[in-house]
């Protein structure tokens, strides 16, 4: 592993890192291998006035996702389905670059990526969100809040979105039609009577950063700054790739892309299994679970 | 490949695990330290309304009649004789701009560099043009930089340590810690100028990674950094694989063992 004295074309560098890792052997600076993730902390149901929420901490990256279910009219081209709306807020607490409008670009980029990976028939069963065709449906507003930036944002955000959707409880409603033909929506009396979404096919993003001749999974901020090109692969729990995107100034040749995609699929399957296990474990603890929240 | 997900666990307050007998007098800006006017004001205090008030958040230190407040987390304030590790950010005429985690960027003059050909020679125009030959944008040097808070680096006689595990460490007073493989032989005739561009072996890299993780775990548990504490922490971490050192429970275990060994050594 080698250190790096850097400035870019004589201009002063603000936050670029000091080290580059030559990954000939499978050892990164913090001792991880190229396909190892940092320790992830997942907690759901942290925000009380949402339909579902989750908080994910991946090293120094801290993400909070809240899902709110509201009733609205379905889109014209899909009258039998509800839909999801994503909004990403890069908080100024995360890094000073996000002050004012600085975080808007990154926020829109992340939101567009989330729209793309959910833009297929099988990720979320949108038909179950329909109340009455062409008139009423559930709209799930998914709000992502970036609390701290420690590298590998996309992965952490996708894990948090999946956990929040798993935690979402949508109240059960019935449509009553009376004699005049006017419809009335009745909310069930029992507050615990809810429908839950199946998140089996919700994809997660795996970011693979190319550093030197190899690629790494779960890059820290410093490793990300050393990598000129990365590949974002969105993978479902069965290993199916739903979407792929290349970021960065550098180029990738087709063989590397293929290798990175295979790594992404492999890593993605393990990611999904771990996430499902932890979510089921948390749910099985029920009321015995000690809520840590934000003051722990 | 390894992937570990877990439920978060509430953090235990550090003072419980330490069992310290004397509590430190902690203050925040605006707190009254004392109403006794017989004391001299030191750093981090000011006199207002007949009382001594703290201006930074930290612990109160008292030496006879002098009261000062030592801040827990602050930018580096340099003192004469300190060793600092810096990062070059700009190349200018006859000097380099260096980032040292202080309020302003530091300046490294060409005339203060150890150049080949001996130490005591006049720096000529050729040296200025050749500045990029010594340190240029994109140069690779072997080692790892760890950035910590300056208040955690203990002041000692020497800050250059060759640890017996095979790596060397420079503990900068400004909180920058440089870990690098120990050079096998020191070249004295080049006037102190070292140019070593060989790739580092895997064994050395593992030692350096382990040291880096140990330093990060000591910092997370707010322990002072000096050669003995780093070495004890390294030895306590040997039974664990390198990447596991950063897991919260293993980190606590290692640092607890280090703390116990240090207490035994003192007592």
Automatic annotation (TrEMBL), chain A:
Gene3D superfamilies in the record: GHMP Kinase, N-terminal domain (3.30.230.70)
Intracellular or extracellular location(s): Cytoplasm; Nucleus, Nucleolus
Any GO molecular function: RNA binding
Keyword RNA-binding: yes
Main location: cytoplasm
Key words, A-Z: Acetylation, Cytoplasm, Exosome, Nucleus, RNA-binding, rRNA processing
Ranges where the Exoribonuclease phosphorolytic domain occurs: 37-171, 201-266
One GO location term (cellular component): cytoplasm
Alphabetized InterPro entries for the sequence: ExoRNase_PH_dom1, ExoRNase_PH_dom2, ExoRNase_PH_dom2_sf, Exosome_comp_Rrp42_subfam, PNPase/RNase_PH_dom_sf, Ribosomal_Su5_D2-typ_SF
Gene Ontology terms describing biological process: rRNA processing
Binding partners and assembly: Component of the RNA exosome core complex (Exo-9), composed of EXOSC1, EXOSC2, EXOSC3, EXOSC4, EXOSC5, EXOSC6, EXOSC7, EXOSC8 and EXOSC9; within the complex interacts with EXOSC2 and EXOSC4. The catalytically inactive RNA exosome core complex (Exo-9) associates with the catalytic subunit EXOSC10/RRP6. Exo-9 may associate with DIS3 to form the nucleolar exosome complex, or DIS3L to form the cytoplasmic exosome complex. Exo-9 is formed by a hexameric base ring consisting of the heterodimers EXOSC4-EXOSC9, EXOSC5-EXOSC8 and EXOSC6-EXOSC7, and a cap ring consisting of EXOSC1, EXOSC2 and EXOSC3.
Family statement: Belongs to the RNase PH family.
UniProt protein name: Exosome component 7
Organism, as annotated: Equus caballus (Horse)
From TrEMBL, chain B:
GO terms for cellular component: cytoplasmic exosome (RNase complex); nuclear exosome (RNase complex)
Molecular function in Gene Ontology: RNA binding
Segments forming domain RRP4 S1: 75-142
Domain K Homology, first and last residues per copy: 143-183
Taxonomic superkingdom: Eukaryota
SUPFAM superfamilies xref list: Eukaryotic type KH-domain (KH-domain type I), Nucleic acid-binding proteins, Ribosomal L27 protein-like
Name recorded for this polypeptide: Exosome component 2
Protein source organism: Equus asinus (Donkey)
